[in-house]
Amino acid sequence: MTKILDGGCACGAVRYRLLSPPMFVHCCHCRDCQRQTGSAFVLNALIEADRVSLLSGESEAVAVPTDSGRPHIIHRCASCKVAVWSVYGGVDKLSFVRVGTLDEPAALTPDVHIYVRSKLPWVALPEGVPAFDAYYDSKKLWPAASLDRRRAVFR
Question: Is 50 exposed, middle or buried (0-12, 13-18, 19+ CB in 10 A)?
Answer without folding.
Answer: exposed
